[in-house]
Amino acid sequence: MICQRCQNEASVHLTERVGGKRQELHLCAGCARKAGLVLPESAPDLGLESVVQSLIVQNVGELVGELAELACPDCGTRYMDYRTDGRLGCPQDYRVFSKGLLPSLQRFHGATRHVGKTARLRPAAVHRLRLRSQLREAVAREDYEAAARLRDQIRLKDTHA
């Protein structure tokens, strides 16, 4: 397209309906600025990663960057795992991911404070979750001796539970 004012290449294209008729205006960046339009300094980045990131920010908010780095110390669940699966790993996740969960809880339930029954605390279960998380980490770093020791501890806890 060619600018309708100066015959340079048009980079701004406006379409509007006036009285039921469609009117198009094609301008170069210089003529668009002279007409009072505010233009971005650079073209938008349309790479897949930037498009996905902008969609996440629009739908989840700015907290994602901060929350994406978080992982539960007990069960190893990451916030982004929760965002993709919709499942939390343990009760500790509610505290660890509170910044990201509170807006969702408010939207779903109309409140962020729990009213009703609560699970009884079981320290042995929390310890077992911590051991399983350590076992996954040991296997991931290929420390099989530590993994075998942790496996045995978990089995011992399971037989005494």
Automatic annotation (TrEMBL):
Which InterPro entries does the UniProt record give? UVR_dom, YacH
Task: Give the PANTHER family listed for this entry.
Answer: PROTEIN-ARGININE KINASE ACTIVATOR PROTEIN
Question: Where's the UVR domain?
Answer: 130-155
The species this protein belongs to is: Paludisphaera borealis
Can you say what this protein is called?
Protein-arginine kinase activator protein
Q: What molecular function terms (GO) are annotated for this protein?
A: cadmium ion binding; cobalt ion binding; copper ion binding; kinase activity; zinc ion binding
Q: Which Pfam families match?
A: UVR
Single GO biological process annotation from the record = stress response to cadmium ion
Name the keywords, alphabetized. Answer: Kinase, Transferase
